[in-house]
């Protein structure tokens, strides 16, 4: 897992939560149905298919 700044983490989790709320497939098994919590769990398990490009 790469070290992300808190701003990068917020952007990744927010973008993934939006994807989940719009019907994207969930990449983990979880008991919650809240898109934000699902996105945070996916981030913690390092399965979010989003990359960060730095200059």
Automatic annotation (TrEMBL):
<protein>
    <submittedName>
        <fullName>DNA-directed RNA polymerase subunit K</fullName>
    </submittedName>
</protein>
<keyword id="KW-0804">Transcription</keyword>
<dbReference type="InterPro" id="IPR036161">
    <property type="entry name" value="RPB6/omega-like_sf"/>
</dbReference>
<dbReference type="GO" id="GO:0042797">
    <property type="term" value="P:tRNA transcription by RNA polymerase III"/>
</dbReference>
<dbReference type="Pfam" id="PF01192">
    <property type="entry name" value="RNA_pol_Rpb6"/>
</dbReference>
<keyword id="KW-0240">DNA-directed RNA polymerase</keyword>
<dbReference type="InterPro" id="IPR020708">
    <property type="entry name" value="DNA-dir_RNA_polK_14-18kDa_CS"/>
</dbReference>
<dbReference type="GO" id="GO:0006360">
    <property type="term" value="P:transcription by RNA polymerase I"/>
</dbReference>
<dbReference type="GO" id="GO:0003677">
    <property type="term" value="F:DNA binding"/>
</dbReference>
<dbReference type="GO" id="GO:0003899">
    <property type="term" value="F:DNA-directed RNA polymerase activity"/>
</dbReference>
<dbReference type="InterPro" id="IPR006111">
    <property type="entry name" value="Rpo6/Rpb6"/>
</dbReference>
<dbReference type="InterPro" id="IPR006110">
    <property type="entry name" value="Pol_omega/Rpo6/RPB6"/>
</dbReference>
<dbReference type="GO" id="GO:0006366">
    <property type="term" value="P:transcription by RNA polymerase II"/>
</dbReference>
<dbReference type="GO" id="GO:0000428">
    <property type="term" value="C:DNA-directed RNA polymerase complex"/>
</dbReference>
